[in-house]
């Protein structure tokens, strides 16, 4: 139970959005906000068995229904067997959950505004406004070519590759993937969705500001303070997003 007592576990609001229907909601929210399109995926660790996680079958995010959600194990395979097609990059989720017991939810996207920061040799993604303080001073970039040469398709399709990327993520919240996309983690599903949306928006602002000349990013102290202030309020945004996709 990730180090929680039984009372804390049963009353921890982080787990209130940790089931198949919440994964469905997260997929639809991320599609509405342009973080995912026909590709991308989001998962959450199962509250009754933290060695498993909920992730959809291989289907476009906006089409995900509750019945599409499948329990996976930390090898990246269906926990109880299924003949339904699974996501090719499900190993990203498995490796991070295995490496990071503090992570409860993960978003993997190909967000177009983020891609430039994964391929630029001169500009790195960093927190430039208070809503994205979780990005810190510089977001790491995983470069497949460094580890596997320059003839791969840049996809992470086995546990070995995923474990290397998870190692490079370290204790961070976001890692970019050169020529591919980004992976974002959180201590709850609402937090991971929040971070995915605001990583995209921060990238948009940073790209715009770069056209104006030198920028002044947030300091480490500012980032820490902003995270402390905003984190307790994420549910406010989550409730709004859920209402939007319900209407």
Notes on the structure:
The chain has nine helices and seven strands. It is globular and about 55 Å long. A seven-stranded mixed β-sheet has the order 3-2-1-4-7-6-5. The protein has helices at residues 6-11, 20-32, 90-99, 115-119, 144-148, 159-169, 189-210, 220-230, 234-246; strands spanning 41-45, 52-56, 69-73, 105-109, 141-142, 174-177, 181-186. With 247 residues, the protein is of the alpha+beta class. A hairpin with a 6-residue loop joins strand 1 and strand 2. It has a single domain (6-246), classed as 3-Layer(aba) Sandwich (L-fuculose-1-phosphate Aldolase), CATH 3.40.225.
Question: Tags for this entry?
Answer:
247 residues; alpha+beta; L-fuculose-1-phosphate Aldolase; seven-stranded mixed β-sheet; 39% helix; globular
């Amino acid at each position: 139970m990730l180090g929680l007592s039984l009372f804390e576990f049963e009353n921890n609001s982080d787990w209130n959005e940790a089931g198949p229907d919440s994964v469905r909601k997260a997929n639809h929210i991320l599609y509405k906000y342009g973080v995912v399109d026909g590709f991308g995926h989001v998962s959450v660790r199962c509250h009754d068995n933290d060695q498993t996680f909920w992730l959809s079958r291989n289907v476009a995010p906006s089409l995900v229904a509750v019945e599409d959600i499948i329990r996976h194990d930390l090898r990246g395979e269906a926990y109880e067997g299924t003949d339904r097609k699974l996501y090719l990059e499900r190993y990203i989720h498995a490796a991070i959950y295995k490496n990071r017991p503090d992570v409860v939810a993960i978003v993997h996207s190909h967000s177009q505004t983020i891609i430039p920061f994964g391929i630029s040799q001169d500009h790195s993604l960093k927190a430039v406004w208070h809503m994205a303080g979780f990005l810190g001073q510089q977001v790491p970039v995983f470069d497949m070519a460094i580890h596997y040469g320059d003839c791969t398709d840049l996809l992470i399709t086995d546990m070995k590759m995923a474990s290397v990327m998870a190692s490079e993520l370290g204790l961070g919240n976001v890692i970019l993937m050169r020529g591919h996309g980004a992976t974002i983690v959180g201590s709850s599903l609402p937090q991971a969705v929040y971070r995915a949306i605001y990583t995209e928006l921060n990238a948009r602002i940073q790209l715009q500001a770069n056209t104006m000349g030198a920028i002044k990013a947030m300091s480490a102290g500012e980032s820490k303070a902003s995270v402390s202030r905003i984190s307790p309020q994420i549910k406010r945004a989550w409730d709004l997003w859920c209402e939007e996709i319900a209407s």
